[in-house]
Amino acid sequence: MRLEHFQYIVEIARCKSMSKASKKLFITQPSLSTAIQGLEAELGFQIFKRSTAGVALTEKGEALLHIAEDIVFQLEQIKELSDPENAVSVTINVAAVPVFCNSLMIDLIQQLHRDYPFINLNILELRPCKILPALISGTADMAIGCYQPSTKEQILQEANKNGFAVEPVFEDKMICFLPRNHPLARKSKVTFPELQEHGIPGAVYNDHVMMDSYDCITTGDAPETEINNDTYSFTDRASIKKAVSKGLAYATLPRLMAYDDIYVTSGMIIPVPMADTNMKLTMFLAYPARGSLSHASTVTLDAVRTLFTKMSELYAEQDRNSKEAEVRSMRNQFLVY
To answer: Measured between alpha carbons, how far apart are the two ends of the chain, in Å?
Structure first.
């Protein structure tokens, strides 16, 4: 029995597939299968049950997995004792929704590059309904997703069924993105009727998170979105923002999409709160619930948590300032009259 055998067990259990695990372990599938068969012969019991659907742990395999996870975790701690400058490079596969990639992904990469240069991120930008399937299939090591109240239970159930934790880390809301010359761009808040009265069409992401169903979490199919004749439909948010900046449309997007955005900072797009909707969007972290995470995974998760904490503090300060400005404006109007 060798130490790498424990890593094999953990990865196969996580991927539920020999072929997927072999790719992540950088060995051939026949070599991995041979190693597990040899280990089973040495131990005298079967670790995995094999079928056309993949592999699953036997009862004794479950018990062995817990031991293997502890050993792999201890190995990670031993590696931490080495000089960070000489640490072995580690790649973490992160599945993330577009709103995070658009707003905070570069900040995350910069932070890890500065503090943990041995960690490399492989970013998989996926629409919300593809996030958990990427984690379940083993394509991603961790995920940054989002849900609405209507999709929350389905996500939690699917994650729990497959042994993943879902940790809410940030609550966002939808706001309106307007061209700078739009008549409503200088208002403190806008409503949907007002937007419809002022002529320009809306721009929507035709696979956006404002969906009625999350059935695609298991099927991999995205729900259809009905598009009106006076609505532009795009497959990416960059095109939406460009259309808004050109004065062709308005858009309702998560508030995070305005963070450190070139269109917003240059004044070409004005983000305005919505007065007649209270739609919430919860950002979450998803990762294996069972066993110990690697040091690199733990560090990456902590870095994401820190970024969302800073965003929460930033938004709280902005909301306070906005409220104070609104109160001052109302007071000035009262004095005038």
So the answer is: 86
